[in-house]
Amino acid sequence: MKIAQIAPLAESVPPRFYGGTERIVSYLTEELVHQGHDVTLFASGDSQTRAELVPITDMALRLNPTVIDTIPYHMMMLEQVRRRANEFDALHFHIDMLHLPMVQDFIGRTVTTLHGRLDLPDLPPFYRAFPDHSLVSISDHQRLPMPPVNWGGTIYHGLPADLLAPRLGAGENYLAFLGRISPEKRPDRAIRIAARSGLKLKIAAKIDNVDRAYWEGEIAPLVDRYPNVEYIGEINEQQKAQFLGQASALLFPIDWPEPFGLVMIEAMACATPVIAFRCGSVPEVIEHGVSGYIVDSEDEAVEAVAVLPYLDRARVRGAFDARFTAERMATDYVALYHDLRGARTDAARLRRLRGQDAALQIVA
Question: Within 13 A of 237's CA, how many CA atoms are on the CB side?
Answer without folding.
Answer: 17
